[in-house]
């Protein structure tokens, strides 16, 4: 396993939004794809799951641009495996960077497997380019609510809602003119429990001065929380 893994992607039309910019959900798809390409888990009894993402954006690439991505694993925490990723455009300028917390769970029971309880042949490094590990987002009470149902097309191979798609739900809270006038610069997403097929998710949210805060719940259980900053 290399300390630093590099992959190049071509941004396609289906990756971008109505204004030609890479969609946040597609951005997370690239971050997760390069991570799994770097370290493909061979134990069939274990599954990688992302618990948190934090992303800071310099510029969102457009369709037909080539993006070079670098990713590397950081030393594990007590409960998670942090991973950093930086993306560069064709001119060498930075596009975005992310820090993600990955956890291992057992495929059958969904029980968490702590880093100290598993022997993985993983090479870690610290380059000094890393963002701080993402922290949790405290629960909030919101005046504005909507709801979404988890349908088949939102599921991934683990049988729960694909975590990148929560960013589509966040973006759908905002009107077209908001997206026309503003660009996403930073976001954090925390995945708190599995979103299962046909569950109805209540989404409470607020929009204040370009900052969107979101809490998604199934009954009393928090499914995800997010904060997105637009400029």
Structure notes:
It is a single chain. The chain has 231 residues and is mainly beta. It is built from three helices and eleven strands; from the N terminus they run E-H-E-E-E-E-E-E-H-H-E-E-E-E. The protein is globular, with a radius of gyration of 17 Å.
Secondary-structure element series = EHEEEEEEHHEEEE
Q: How far do the termini sit from each other? A: 39 Å
Beta strands, count: 11
Assembly type of the shown chains? single chain
In helices, the fraction of residues equals: 10-25%
Strand content: 35-45%
Output the radius of gyration. 17 Å
Coarse shape: globular
Q: Report mean pLDDT, rounded to a whole number.
A: 95
Q: Enumerate how many helices there are, as a single number.
A: 3
Identify the notable features of this structure and list them briefly.
231 residues, mainly beta, 11-stranded antiparallel beta sheet, 3 helices, 11 strands, globular
Fold blueprint:
Layout: E1 5-10, H1 24-38, E2 46-57, E3 66-73, E4 81-88, E5 94-106, E6 112-113, E7 144-149, H2 166-172, H3 176-181, E8 184-191, E9 200-208, E10 211-218, E11 221-230
Antiparallel strand pairs: 1-3, 2-5, 2-8, 3-4, 4-5, 5-6, 7-9, 8-11, 9-10, 10-11
